[in-house]
Amino acid sequence: MPITLEDIQKDFESNPFLSHIGFQIIYFEEGNVKVKLTIEEYLLNTNGTLHGGVYATMLDFILGMVLRSVTKTRCVTTNLTIHYLASMSEGELYAEAKVLQQGYKLAFAEGEIKDMKGNVITKGIGTFKLIREE
Hints:
By secondary structure, the protein is an alpha+beta fold. Helix content is about 25%, strand content about 40%. The termini are close together.
């Protein structure tokens, strides 16, 4: 049975790890996914800024989600390259991603995380192995 967009959205919304961090899906359709995160104190590092791992997780999340929305199959990250351009301590972050290329076994996506004013805070590109049911 093929995976539907509704199945994919339910998978992500029911993931306890992603819910704990606080990611909110604000837009979801095939090839177009947007996610929001309100920065909370428990997500800050010892410098008082959002921990780099949260940015990485947000990118991994949105890249995988946009790929699944297009491929309708599960995927796992094989490589994730992140460019940290600025830091934040408060406010909201918005992430979006797009598929760059898709083959039968591998797919590539890129994404950005922006602040409330639209400034790019973090950029990333990922390679994913597609897990197709044979």
